[in-house]
Design a protein that fits this description.
8-stranded parallel β-barrel, globular, binds flavin mononucleotide
Length: 334
């Protein structure tokens, strides 16, 4: 019997496959389907700071320049007038989902300033969420904001949110931050119990004929798994936080890799958006088949066995392997 159980943010989960924050969780019917397909927990789509407060000074300070500079970048945030789910509806959805399903529901808040909207962390807890994910999606375009200021701002945000709630908090971060291990340990010091690696930034394309910026969201592929996989492997056992991997998990084998690198859970959005949440059942089946074939009897025993701490060649995850990797093409190029 294969034991898929794992722990994440103090929650006992039946397996490591979690639905990542996405528009799918806007409908109760999808959340029910997620539970039926075997998904072990659901992260709600994010409640945005802009949905809660339109006039936060701290928010303006951080965001103003980037959004004013290019009209197109205004698309970056939802059009608030058309965005039909306000904070009250969001809280009501959490309440309803908690009644409708038995799997844990994780709330998600998105913002960068630490002003009034943070009380919503507390409201999300009161609505019954089992944990909270803090989604720190922000592009620092302001020339005068330093990396240190940005990080201090994030750390303070985590501190204030964690001080407001009793449920566990995880921080979802971007890969475009320096000194990640240090930053994550600062988040832990500020009260976070988990880190979610990585937020997948939507990269606008250029429509050069119409001189327009195309911000259509492209879904991920398994090729994107390598970046979070590497950081998972580097961080496992070194930071005092549960680790969730997100970006590029599409198959049962991707799930196996995530766990072996060190993830407590793997969070999936693109695969479910593209092919339906029913894919979860196949993915879990593939994972079980793989574990059976290679004689692993539990996820717990598999977690982190291919992390940097546990592999024969730890340098493979670091710079030491960089030159070797580049040279691997020397004999292949005519
Ligand atoms: C349609 C869609 C909506 C998303 N909405 C959110 C969101 O509200 N909050 C958030 O933190 N991430 C959001 N994400 C990002 C996903 O949670 C996930 O971290 C990212 O897409 C990488 O996982 P994937 O490769 O499985 O898509 C969204 C992704 C998609 C595809």
């Amino acid at each position: 019997m294969i034991d898929l159980k794992t722990k994440y943010l103090g929650l006992s989960l039946k397996n490591p496959l979690v639905a990542s924050a996405s528009a799918l969780s806007k409908r109760a019917s999808n959340v029910r389907k997620m539970e039926d397909a075997g998904i072990s927990a659901v992260v709600m789509y994010s409640l945005f700071e802009e949905q809660i407060t339109h006039d936060s000074l701290a928010f303006d300070y951080f965001m103003e320049r980037g959004t004013d500079r290019f009209a197109e970048s205004l698309d970056y945030f939802p059009d608030l007038d058309r965005y039909n789910v306000g904070p009250d509806e969001y809280l009501e959805q959490i309440r309803k989902y908690k009644e409708a399903v038995d799997i844990p529901i994780i709330g998600s808040l998105n913002g960068v300033s630490n002003s009034g909207w943070i009380e919503y962390a507390n409201k999300i807890e009161e609505a019954g969420a089992d944990a909270l994910e803090l989604n720190t999606y922000y592009i620092p375009t302001n020339l005068s904001i330093t990396a240190e200021q940005l990080e201090d701002n994030y750390i303070e945000l985590v501190r204030v949110v964690c001080a407001n709630v009793n449920i566990p908090v995880a921080v979802k971060i971007s890969p475009f931050l320096t000194a990640l291990p240090n930053l994550i340990s600062m988040f832990v010091g500020a009260g976070a119990e988990g880190a979610v690696l990585f937020n997948r930034f939507i990269q606008p394309d250029l429509d050069v004929e119409n001189l327009e910026v195309d911000s259509t969201l492209q879904l991920s592929t398994s090729a994107e798994l390598l970046l979070p996989l590497r950081w998972m492997a580097l961080l496992y056992g070194r930071v005092d936080a549960d680790l969730a991997l997100t970006s590029g998990v599409h198959t049962g084998l991707d799930l196996v890799k995530s766990v072996m690198a060190g993830a407590n859970v793997a969070m999936v959005a693109s695969e479910f958006v593209a092919n339906g949440v029913e894919r979860a059942e196949d993915m879990l089946g593939e994972m079980v088949n793989w574990m059976t074939a290679y004689e692993y009897d539990s996820v717990e025993k598999m977690q982190g066995i291919m992390s940097q701490k546990n592999v024969e060649n730890p340098a493979a995850f670091e710079r030491a392997n960089y030159m070797k990797a580049l040279q691997s093409y020397d004999n292949r190029i005519a």
